[in-house]
Design a protein that fits this description.
Layout (H helix, E strand, L loop, with lengths): L1 H49 L5 H5 L12 H31 L5 H15 L2 H13 L8 H26 L2 H9 L4 H28 L4 H4 L19 H9 L4 H36 L1
Amino acid sequence: MTALRNEAVADALYRRRRIGNALALVLSNVATVIGLVCLGWISWTLLAKGLGGIEVALFTRDTPPPMTGGGLRNAFFGSAVMCLLAIAIGTPLAIAAGTWLAEYGRGTRVGTVVRFVNDILLSAPSIVLGLFVYTLVVMRTGGNFSAIAGAIALAFIVVPVVLRTTDEMLRLVPGQMREAALSLGMPHWKVVLQVMFRSALPGVMTGILLALARISGETAPLLFTAFGNQYWSADLTGPMASVPVVMYQYASSPYQSWQDLAWAGALVLTTFVLLTSLVARAIVARHRVAHD
């Protein structure tokens, strides 16, 4: 009797698990289909509305007044300048902090606090970071919007992404490599630079590219810092145009010419993010093949 009862309980448990597994598979497939449909819908709308605005003038002329032709040359330039400045500001700090966490702060209370703070910064809304930089930089300079302030705001987004990637990539390097180098008498700093970073470099580069892809579409921080500029400007201490801000302003305008420019800018920006993500994945794939 006991054996029969145990067998019945096992059969019931097995049927319940099969039903749960089938239900989970159905729900996951439905979610996948919904996601693909939404992605296809967005991509088709973006291509249909933005492809017609891709022309030479888009890259050779500045943002125009209402009801006139023009392009996004100054916005492309401003976005490139502020994104590159943000990478230049945030990447060294993030790599240094990630290296300290992986090599010196591992298992310490300070390291745990730093990781916790970095996780908070990683999930913080970008508009909050923009308001912080607005208070810290813009208001302290007499309300002067500038490209430098915009780059600082974007750097706050770069730092947690690159820091987390650097930390994880260095911790994934086998400990035997570190021990072998130390056993040969190499100083710890040389082990980190010449051994650990050589193995972790593709992952770190991937993190930098992903951070670049993320900040290239940020609008909220730039509204409070760089603000925008209808004209060409290379002055880092003054307002500067950017593609996300122009898209935000032009897409909500009643002028068809401005809306067309917004869609064209969105298509170019999306293509850039896609290509950057593909390059990052290619680096990771090549690194895996080389190690396999």
